[in-house]
Design brief:
Distance between the termini: 53 Å
Largest sheet: none
Order of helices and strands: HHH
Radius of gyration: 24 Å
Length: 108
């Protein structure tokens, strides 16, 4: 337990730095701003990888093309969360009734 201090500080620093970069670049803004930043990142990453390949002199496998729309992912996540929250009271009632029935059956 005595040697965890430096590692914890390092992890907190890295996490804080990542959060700052995400906030500063606009990833934590609205969905339009996040989509714009993601588009810029998609455009900037391949040239950077090409430069690294030339510098280090080895070949990387081709990156798969992924059709990812953050707006759709966000909307489906929100929809799933709201759906789960809206069915929560009904599910709790059903589980309560099942539990009471189980206890009644045990008491027989």
């Amino acid at each position: 337990m005595g040697g965890e201090g430096p590692w914890l500080a390092t992890k907190v620093t890295i996490a804080g730095g990542a959060l700052y970069v995400a906030y500063d670049s606009g990833l934590l803004g609205g969905r339009e701003q996040g989509s714009e930043v993601l588009g810029k990142a998609k455009a900037a990453i391949p040239p950077a990888v090409d430069e690294w390949v030339k510098y280090f002199g080895f070949e990387l496998p081709a990156f798969p093309k992924i059709g990812f729309a953050p707006v759709e992912a966000w909307n489906s996540g929100v929809h799933s969360s709201i759906s789960a929250l809206s069915s929560g009271p009904t599910a709790v009632g059903d589980y309560t009734n099942q539990g009471l029935q189980y206890l009644k059956d045990l008491a027989k």
